[in-house]
Amino acid sequence: MSTPLLEVKDLTMHFPIRSRGLIPRTVGHVPAVDGVSFSIGAGEALGLVGESGSGKSTTGRLITRLHEPTSGQIIFDGQDIAGWTPRQLKPLRRDIQMIFQDPYTSLNPRHTVGEIIGAPLEIHKLVPKQGRLRRVQELLEIVGLNPEHYNRYPHEFSGGQRQRIGIARALTMQPRLLVADEPVSALDVSIQAQIINLMKDLQKEFNIAFLFIAHDLAIVRHFCPQIAVMYKGKIVENAPREELYTNPQHGYTRSLLSAVPDMRQAVVGGRRERIRYTGKEEVVTTTER
Amino acid sequence: MKLNPPLPSTGATASTMGTEPRNVVLSRSPRQLAWARFTRDKKTVVAAVIVGIYVLLAIAAPILVALGVLNPYDNNQDLIANDSLPIGAFGGISWDHPFGVEPGLGRDTLSRIWFGLTFSFAIAIIGSFFAMLLGVVFGIIAGLTGGWVDYLIGRLIDLTLAFPQTLMLLALSSTVLGILTTVFFIPEGDLARAAYVILVLAVFGWVGVARVIRGQVLSIREREYIDAAKLIGASPMRRWFREVLPNLWAPILVQGTLILPAYISTEAALAYLNVSVQQPTPTLGNVLQDAVRYPVADFTYFIIPVLVLVILVVAFNLLGDGLRDALDPKGSR
Questions:
Q1: ipTM value for the complex
Q2: Can you give the residue ranges of every domain in chain A?
Q3: B228 → chain A, closest CA residue
Q4: Do the Cβ atoms of A40 and A211 come closer than 8 Å?
């Protein structure tokens, strides 16, 4: 394995707590992300799991630079982008894109699907005006939507279809890294599998690296060969999936795994042991590499 | 009820995409959907028609006065009895004076109300225009910047709301009228008085608008599609004009239609307090001010301007509510 596509080193994000009033003062900090390090190779997928508030979404937003990191390095393709200005970031936007959690608020209701998917082409002047519609239709076809629906508005689509539109928008500029922030948790279980399979296909076809953020362990297990577990802003365990599921090292990981409902147990009857994580523990990291 | 009446699909999308549509799929924009909801709501349609008639009447009045069809200024002493009430039943209603004549001077009531509508509308429209302008600008600034600017605007709104409006308005009227005529060279008399009313409406009216718009901006600013726009490299200007602003038109329009009837009745109230445009120039307010002196003696003269005002305000409010329902059916999504 040569240099990874994305390498995050000691990434920290402290949200300031500001007092209300005419002159707001910073009265404290919430350490949402606290010294997180991991790496993703080109075309690979890393799962990031953890409970609500563990800082996994913030990590995703830091990598896409929607948030300004407090400290740490985000090395993408050999360059540390952590401190880059919006102007510097603009060309980079083509390489790092994001799939959002809520397909209902991630699409502007006043724009047609064609305008939404075509906007990146317009901003980066990637395709001449005449070719834009063709590219939009191509993308719609790739994500499994009717290419003739480019002039429809988001409200005319179901949640799953909307998420496909969101994926198409992220694909427009042929990114090398996709941050998927709970991409299926707002969808029906029946639709979740379709979207996951679509993303898997895309990953293979276009060799896109994924940072897959989720709280659903089953989905992450299906999608990501390597999984990092986050707890209170820190990565407590980072291991290949088989290892993580069969032999979890960290207490929090064990607790998380024990919280997943088990069908077999339900058939047998009785209660399975539910591990509660309370104490502090050493951070355990086992990696293939 | 037909859920999907065939509507022509928009050509706008095709042209923005830069190519002719190959196969136009039946599709409805949010605007077309809103229109469909709007026309399905009978109550709102009726209200819209009534408002439309009022507006047309208000526009037509000055022309009819110029042509001599309406005579809001001519006295008809021959129609007034010795007790200063009109001769004849129902306030002297006749073919020449369908709404009767005014007690005292004998001026044609229809002409005065009709022409008064024009002045009332003009004052209310200009007043709400400035209130909307101030409200939208301050609301957007407060919502977009946040921080101490938002804080200051918020306190300014609180201050304005805490102001004893009616009292100050009466107390300040002569002072402000003086400033308007001497500093801003507005001709003394009705024009200065109208300007004062507009000023009052705008200064006290923008706060409500600003609050609503600020709330909308705050809510839209945090939607994920704004983040998505940031991620595809959209400039702040593009994010603002292409992503936020199109979502603000609906609340702006609704606020406008709700503010206007409120201002027409505010003008009437101000006229009653002798602050607005004075006789002989008619407004709905000063016609009412005169009419409320005869609730028993000349009931017809009393009730007609009241009905005209009530119907106008109710119709406008229903239209505003209907517009809100049509444009924003789920609250906000």
A1: 0.84
A2: 6-95+211-285
A3: A106
A4: yes
**CA B167 to chain centroid:** 24
Taking CA atoms, B141 is separated from B5, B133, B150, in Å, by: 40, 12, 7
Residue B89 lies in a domain: no
Interface contact A274, partner B, CB < 8 A: no
Does B19 sit within 8 Å of A133, measured CB to CB?
yes
Judge: B30–A153 Cβ closer than 8 Å, yes or no: yes
A21 inside 8 A of chain B by CB: yes
- The residues, any chain, with a CB within 8 Å of residue A151's CB and separated by 6 or more, are A112, A113, A114, B9, B10, B13, B14, B17, B21, B24, B25, B27
According to CATH, the superfamily of the domain at A6-95+211-285 is P-loop containing nucleotide triphosphate hydrolases (3.40.50.300)
* A-interface mutation test, from B33, B225, B239, B332, most A Cβ less than 10 A away: B225
User: In this structure, is residue B232 part of a structural domain?
Assistant: yes
pLDDT (tens digit per residue) in A58-108: 999 999 998 889 999 999 988 898 888 888 888 888 899 999 998 888 998
Q: How far is CA B126 from CA A185, B62, B259, in A?
A: 50, 17, 11
**Phi, psi torsion values for B243, nearest 5 degrees:** -105, -45
Spell out which residues of chain A touch residue B152, defining contact as CB-CB under 8 Å: 22
B113, B305 in Cβ contact below 8 A?
yes
CB contact under 8 A, A124 and B228: no
pTM comes to 0.76
Q: How many domains does chain B have?
A: 1
Residue B248: inside a domain, yes or no?
yes
Residues B50-68 have pLDDT tens digits of: 999 999 998 988 888 888 7
User: Residue B127 maps to which CATH number?
Assistant: 1.10.3720.10
Q: In what order do the strands lie in the sheet with A79-80?
A: A26-40, A6-18, A71-76, A79-80
Question: Which residues in A lie closer than 8 A to residue B28 (C-beta atoms)?
Answer: 153, 156
Is B55 within a domain? no
Rounded distance between C-alpha atoms, residue A90 and residue A123, angstroms: 10
Give the structural domain span for B200. Answer: 116-327
Distance, in angstroms, between B76 CA and closest chain A CA? 59
